[in-house]
Design goal:
transcription; about 525 residues; Rossmann fold; 13 strands; alpha/beta; nine-stranded mixed β-sheet; 19 helices
Length: about 525
């Protein structure tokens, strides 16, 4: 149900200050290491890692009712001052590292020269949370792939790939007892996630197949504060090592700004994470608005997201005070959304509504057609889809068989690990391991489960629901190109295909961003 537009707000309160200490990540610049091609397809490459500084992004929110049934004991005993100190929040933030909207200079031969983003560097010191918040379809021949594995890698220690694919094939043929035997044998070959990218990816996929057999990856739990803080630090390191996280954030925010009014905006987010992506968006809203702006964020989150939701709310509220804008954040439990759909989301007359999607919500809901039919009733200004999991290729492959979906995902994540290795060829292997364990391993578990569940290709689902792609603006392209120019990691490039902006690692799509309307 839509409710009337709220009355004009009172004067914005004066920002408050919180002085806290810094978090320093270890220097990852050491003696250069020799790079060796290690992808699934064993492509010949000669990338050259860059050494510049990462862009930091952060998040913020204001008071609103929390719909989640939170654990009172857990939340009431949180020492948020200590957490903020661990996150390095204090009030002496400087100018933003990156503005979301950047206008090319027609008189400049290199428009990226004025792109004010801190260079990527593997020696990262995160001084303030406020700084972080302010700155900020290939087909494959499966038989040929197996043939390559069998003949080229059998004598070089890579025959475990054939075993892994055979185990996946057993799921298709319902020979789960045979799959268990193969996986137990692989346990002796792949004891830990070490070695080349393909070996490490194979280890995680072996784990994922074992979890699918036992059902152990379907038991969510509430994260501890220590895990959340480590997750934030790891995400910061990921952003400093690779352009992949920031590509998703910048393109999404620019699409939102291109299609929504800045004075009264509502974002319905189905994959909010820690909310870091709202940093530059909020700053742009504050700078562009001619009157007191209001940003409403409705995040649909799983029930185990209780602690993260409180952290997001506190951070967004603080940053909103500093920017002198109003931000309201509501959390809708996924279980409630599964029952009520968009009736669980408060809609207000006169607001510009944007919906942010990722593969996550489609994995949870299963029925993409019903979800998109309900979404149509919301009449959003724009729907933004970011695929940073290789969903398009995986879903197309998995439509024919589970093993093809596994092979597609294995190819995708081995490429992802390869790009991380190349990006840290001067050192930083420990942070790559942390990124793998905290950010990529859960996605691999989800990818295998999605292949088993035959999650439909998103593009076909969108067209089937009557959605049509929206042309991305030149500023979206401009930001992406400048981000890569500053990262200086050879091997990444950006292409526009069918109104999607795609970040490639060589010939494999890593992230795609697209905008849609009904």
């Amino acid at each position: 149900m839509r409710v009337p537009v709220p009355s004009s707000p009172q004067a914005n309160p004066k920002p408050t200050n919180n002085l806290l200490r810094t978090i320093a990540l270890p220097n990852l610049n050491t003696t250069s290491l020799c790079y060796e091609p290690t992808s699934v397809l064993d492509l010949c490459r000669s990338p050259s890692p860059g050494s510049e500084k990462p862009t930091d992004h952060s998040v913020v929110v204001t008071d609103s009712q929390d719909y989640l049934d939170l654990d009172d004991h857990a939340l009431h005993n949180l020492d948020w001052d200590s957490i903020m100190k661990d996150l390095g929040l204090h009030d002496d933030s400087g100018a933003p590292l990156l503005k979301t909207i950047l206008h090319p200079d027609n008189n400049n031969n290199n428009p990226c020269d004025d792109f004010t983003i801190a260079p990527f560097d593997h020696a990262i010191e995160f001084s303030t949370l406020s700084d972080i918040y302010s700155n900020q379809n290939l087909t494959f021949d499966f038989n040929h792939l197996v043939h390559d594995f069998s003949n080229q890698h059998h004598n070089s220690g890579f025959d475990f790939i054939e075993e892994l694919i055979r185990a996946a094939d057993c799921f298709d043929t319902k020979q789960l007892h045979v799959a268990q035997v193969i996986l137990e044998r692989l346990n002796q070959r792949l004891r830990s996630p070490v070695g080349k990218p393909l070996q490490r990816a194979a280890f995680y996929f072996k784990e994922a197949l074992q979890s699918l057999l036992s059902g152990s990856n379907r038991t969510p739990r509430i994260s501890s504060l220590v895990e959340i803080v480590h997750g934030i630090r790891t995400f910061k390191a990921f952003s400093g090592i690779s352009p992949i996280p920031m590509f998703s954030i910048f393109t999404t925010n620019q699409v939102v700004l291109d299609h929504a009014a800045c004075s009264f905006m509502h974002v319905i987010d189905f994959d909010i994470g820690l909310g870091i992506q709202y940093a530059s968006l909020m700053k742009e809203i504050a700078e562009k608005a001619t009157e007191s702006p209001l940003l409403r964020i409705t995040a649909v989150v799983p029930e185990e997201y209780a602690v993260e939701s409180t952290l997001v709310r506190e951070n967004l509220a603080q940053f909103a005070l500093e920017l002198r804008i109003r931000v309201q954040v509501d959390f809708v439990p996924l279980r409630t959304f599964e029952t009520l759909s968009f009736k669980a989301v408060k809609l207000v007359d006169g607001e510009s509504t944007t919906v942010l999607l990722s593969p996550v919500i489609f994995r949870h809901l299963g029925n993409a057609a019903a979800f998109l039919a309900d979404l149509r009733m919301v009449s959003p200004s724009v729907v933004v889809l970011v695929d940073s999991e290789g969903w398009a290729d995986m879903a197309t492959a998995a439509a024919s068989s589970f093993r093809r979906g596994v092979v597609s995902s294995l190819e995708y994540y081995s490429m992802m690990l390869e790009s991380l290795d190349v990006s840290t060829a001067g050192g930083g292997g420990e942070w790559v391991r942390r990124i793998e364990m905290m950010h990529l391993r859960p996605k691999i578990l989800a990818a295998v489960e999605s292949s088993w569940g035959r999650m439909p290709p998103w593009r076909e689902s969108f067209y089937g629901a009557g959605m049509r792609p929206v042309q991305l603006s030149q500023f979206v392209d401009f930001q992406a190109e400048c981000l890569l120019a500053k990262s200086q990691i050879r091997g990444f490039h950006v292409e526009k295909r069918q109104n999607e902006l795609i970040l490639f690692w060589h010939d494999r799509a890593m992230v795609s961003s697209s905008a849609w309307r009904f």
